[in-house]
Amino acid sequence: MSFNLVDLLIIDWLVFCLLTPRFIRLPGTDGHPGYKNYGYHSKAFLKGCLFSTAASLLFAGIIRGVAALLKG
Q1: What are the boundaries of each domain within the chain?
Q2: How many CB atoms lie within 10 A of CB 44?
Q3: pLDDT digit of tens for each residue in the chain (72 aa)?
Q4: What would the DSSP string read from start to end of 4-32?
Q5: From CA 46, how far away is CA 18, in angstroms rounded?
Q6: DSSP letter (8 states) at residue 49
Q7: Half-sphere exposure of 2 (CA within 13 A, CB side)
Q8: pTM, two decimal places
């Protein structure tokens, strides 16, 4: 979850949306409004959080099942 938050705040919002350095922009897309689309990045952040939560629950269940089998 920490990675998702860093990705949203620093990489997406700060670098892509606010600063938008030249090396990130595709040729011929200077000034395109998509580079300042904070909502797009927010939705991706929420999707990342949901995916991380689902994956964590799945792996926790697997580990718990394996531990129960080994315990006997």
Answers
A1: 2-71
A2: 14
A3: 898 999 999 999 999 999 999 999 999 998 899 999 999 999 999 999 999 999 999 999 999 999 999 998
A4: HHHIIIIIIIIIIIII--TTTSPTT-TT-
A5: 20
A6: H
A7: 0
A8: 0.79
